[in-house]
């Protein structure tokens, strides 16, 4: 996989271990954004909606994401943000399960999943209710009133991988549908929505898919649900005939109805080109490398940083782990600031979690070894105690 690294623009002097939060810049995406802005927009103007295929981007990009998540090309669309897609998916799923009234999320999950499930319930004015289950208990809360359960495939903090097929089967046995959040999974570990008989899924375009800051997200609807699944956000571009400008809404066939409004073409084009980096890559090799990097990191941290206040907060078993590793430290925030100052870029999550992402496409084993020496230096030398590392930034 070493040659794949050449496909990225990576600044020198930096060990980038935050590809799980914002993927690095693929050269293909940089070239495409230049071409789309300069040629397609600058010269082609409005003709580029058809001439450059802008109008098809949501479905074309969705089809490119599909093989990375075990979906068919016509089951995925790129649109909106993950948060907005959660709202659409939860309400569409709840609507398919109309006799039931509860949507479940779990404490400690990425907050937007809970916020949007609660928002989806709120707009129904009581028809749908939201319950926030304690950590690790969401599947246990499934009962005869559960309409929808929302779960992440890879937990954003711990990196723990959930058993997608097992949890989906458990939900189905209870008569519930599942919305999977793939944000920390797609592009890192293998995802098999089809094999798991999944219902709905959403995910993020700017993490391991490298689509760029604020890249469009995506939405998956299993083919068997598509005839009846309705988007609650019935924007004109999800209409069967948008350019008929009809007064009444009629959903487009299939996944296309989950497009709401006009796609952000610059961002969508960057994601489209970024996905080309995955063409021809073996998902097994990608996952294996990401996990091997994480295992090397854990081994070296335990050997080189023993007694320096770090504790593993991710599963040790690589098979149960995504491609990032979380460590606890009582002074996690200033420690991460000090690491970033030394060129080792990870991130911090409250209250005490240092996250290190090992994006398989551009992270090298030697980056891991070097990063651990910097961690050791910062902790042993206590450079993190410098007061300038204490002030919280807006983005952590
Ligand atoms: C990053 C992430 C999101 C991001 O949501 P946006 O609305 O695209 O900002 C959502 N869910 C999970 C689990 C994430 O990790």
In short:
This protein has 396 residues and is of the alpha/beta class. Helix content is 33%, strand content 14%.
Verbal overview:
This protein is α/β, with parallel strands linked by helices. The protein has two domains: 28-278, Aspartate Aminotransferase, domain 2 (3-Layer(aba) Sandwich); 282-390, Aspartate Aminotransferase, domain 1. 33% of the residues lie in helices and 14% in strands. It contains eleven helices and 15 strands. The strands form four sheets. It has a seven-stranded mixed sheet, with helices on both faces. A four-stranded antiparallel sheet has the order 11-12-15-14. α4 crosses α5. The protein is globular. The relative contact order is 0.16. The mean pLDDT is 97. It binds pyridoxal-5'-phosphate. Residues 81-83, 110, 112-113, 152, 156, 181, 183-184, 204, 217 line the site of pyridoxal-5'-phosphate.
Main CATH class of the largest domain? Alpha Beta
CATH architecture level-2 label of the largest domain: 3-Layer(aba) Sandwich
- The named CATH superfamily of the largest domain: Type I PLP-dependent aspartate aminotransferase-like (Major domain)
Could you spell the SSE succession in H and E letters? EEEHHHEHEHEEHEEEHHHEEHEEEH
Question: What would you report as the Rg, rounded to the nearest angstrom?
Answer: 22 Å
Question: What are the segments in which pLDDT stays under 50 over at least 5 consecutive residues?
Answer: none
Q: What is the number of independent domains?
A: 2
What is the topology, as strand order, of the major beta sheet?
4-10-9-8-7-5-6
Largest sheet geometry: 7 strands, mixed
The backbone outline, from C-alpha atoms, is globular
Tally of contiguous helical segments: 11
Q: Average pLDDT value?
A: 97
Strand content: 5-15%
Give the terminus-to-terminus CA distance: 30 Å
Helix content: 25-40%
CATH topology of the largest domain: Aspartate Aminotransferase, domain 2
Helix and strand composition category: alpha/beta
